[in-house]
UniProtKB/TrEMBL annotation:
Presence of the UniProt keyword Nuclease in the record: no
Fumarate lyase N-terminal domain mapped to chain residues: 31-325
Listed name of the protein: argininosuccinate lyase
EC numbers: 4.3.2.1
Organism this protein belongs to: Spizellomyces punctatus (strain DAOM BR117)
Annotated keywords: Lyase
HAMAP family hit by this protein: Arg_succ_lyase
Length: 483
């Protein structure tokens, strides 16, 4: 017969084990473990501080899963309704910012299920039947990113729309075009605007294609081997707005190509925004003076009161490196992972969240900057110089039947002759030109017309009025049909 001391010792041991079980029940993976985690490890392992952003996606996915379980008899209709309604209440707490996070809430899935149990009781424990956090988190991420990517597509089209509207309104403004940051040939300001609109159009097409690849359902893959209760995955896909189910459960839980591809898309789009910003930073400088940024998108100097700094554009340019860094870092996380799910994949969310936030802000700031930008047409025109028509001299001779390789050298000699005389080419006489080649005639004087030079570039994609109008028409139609 046991002594009182022995019974007390056994009771104490039972209390310890019971406490440990209770602690680990709060963690979805409890049961196997009886030892307590290092508190630092618990914090290191937890992701709720950042994945809480997916609360709505997690609730939506769980409600669909409850309906799927009811369809195969795992849940009664009453239990299904309890779960769906209880999850609505959890969502209301998140939406009203009254959700109370507990120390045991390891991630958004744990937090929502824990709170669901507090609201509706033990039936909450049936929700995770046949489901793993592996397929759950992959589904949540796809739902969340699909919605965010759709919003980014709208921001991008808004920016394109402003560029197209300005191009149409300011089609008669001409400016120097540059290569190597050296004045090259005259172009329309609208043609410059549209060059970036076409970059952004390609970005929009890539994002539309990416949204289709994001929109594949992993739920029903289980931890890795599939769902043992034959849940209807096509029903789940339809319920959650997915176009198809992922055809392999191992692939379903481990694939993060959609995150990597989104980070690449964001990086490339940011590169386009950065180059556009760099042009406008240069054009807004005192040395150029082609454009002026609105006060709303500029700042001053703490020391020099005359300064007006293009901070909006510099921040876009700077944040490009941030987005690219997230992409390169995540690819290094992916490259050595064995199949299927590994905790390394917890590193997928922060770069994804950060890229969405960063590019979303940059697109809206770019739109505001371009909308309010003031252009200086006279300053642009004053920056044109006759030597920018040297190619037109060569083209003039081509039209007279002289081979281009020969005309290029002749035009170069005309440039040198004008430089040697300290004048411009349009000041050279007809005799001067005839000494260079006999094909020059009195109509050589017609070359010195910037507008004519621009409108000579009339092949599709050129800077002539007609071809710029064609670009505007196409982009307006695309914006109208793809809105």
């Amino acid at each position: 017969m046991r002594t009182v001391h022995q019974l007390a010792s056994i009771f104490s041991q039972l209390q310890t084990v019971t406490c440990s079980i209770i602690v680990n029940m709060a963690q979805l993976w409890g049961g196997r473990f009886t030892g307590k985690n290092d508190p630092i490890m618990e914090a290191f392992n937890a992701s709720l501080k950042f994945d809480r952003r997916m609360w709505q996606a997690d609730i939506t996915g769980s409600q669909a899963y409850a309906k799927a379980l009811a369809r195969v008899g795992i849940l009664t209709h009453e239990e299904r309704d309890q779960l769906v309604e209880g999850l609505d209440k959890v969502g209301q707490e998140w939406a009203s910012d009254t959700f109370e996070v507990k120390p045991s809430d390891e991630d958004i899935h744990t937090a929502n299920e824990r709170r669901l149990g507090e609201i509706i009781g033990t039936v909450a424990g049936k929700l995770h039947t046949g489901r793993s956090r592996n397929d759950q988190v992959a589904t949540d991420m796809r739902i969340w990113l699909r919605e965010q990517a759709t919003a980014l597509l709208t921001f991008l089209k808004d920016l394109i729309g402003i560029a197209v509207a300005r191009a149409e309104r300011e089609i008669d403004v001409i400016m120097p075009g540059y290569t190597h940051l050296q004045r090259a040939q005259p172009i329309r300001w609208s043609h410059w605007l549209l060059s970036y609109a076409w970059n952004w159009h390609a970005d929009a097409e890539r994002l539309e294609q990416l949204i289709k690849r994001i929109n594949k359902l992993p739920l029903g893959s289980g931890a890795l081997a599939g769902n043992p209760f034959n849940v209807d995955r096509e029903f789940l896909a339809n319920e959650l707005g997915f176009e198809a189910v992922m055809p392999n459960s191992l692939y379903g839980v481990s694939d993060r190509d959609f995150v990597a591809e989104f980070l690449f898309w964001a990086s490339l789009t940011m590169v386009h925004l950065s180059r556009w910003s760099e042009d406008l930073i240069i054009y807004s400088s005192g040395e150029f003076g082609f454009v002026s940024l609105a006060d709303a998108y500029s700042t001053g100097s703490s020391l020099m009161p005359q300064k007006k700094n293009p901070d909006s554009l510099e921040l876009i340019r700077g944040k490009t490196g941030r987005v690219f860094g997230g992409m390169s870092g995540f690819l290094m996380t992916l490259k050595g992972l064995p199949s299927t799910y590994n905790k390394d994949l917890q590193e997928d969310k922060e770069p994804m969240f950060d890229a969405v936030d960063t590019i979303g802000a940059c697109l809206q700031i770019a739109t505001g900057t371009l909308t309010t930008l003031t252009i200086k047409p006279e300053k642009m025109k004053q920056s044109l110089s006759i030597d920018m028509l040297a190619t037109d001299v060569a083209e003039y001779l081509v039209r007279k039947g002289v081979p281009f390789r020969e005309t290029h050298h002749i035009a170069g000699r005309a440039v040198r002759l004008a430089e040697d005389r300290g004048t411009q080419m349009d000041q050279l006489s007809l005799d001067d030109f005839k000494q260079l080649h006999s094909a020059f005639e009195a109509d050589v004087k017609d070359i010195w017309n910037f507008e004519q030079s621009i409108d000579n570039r009339c092949a599709t994609g050129g800077t002539s009025r007609t071809t710029v109008e064609q670009q505007i028409t196409f982009l307006k139609q695309w914006l109208g049909t793809s809105a």
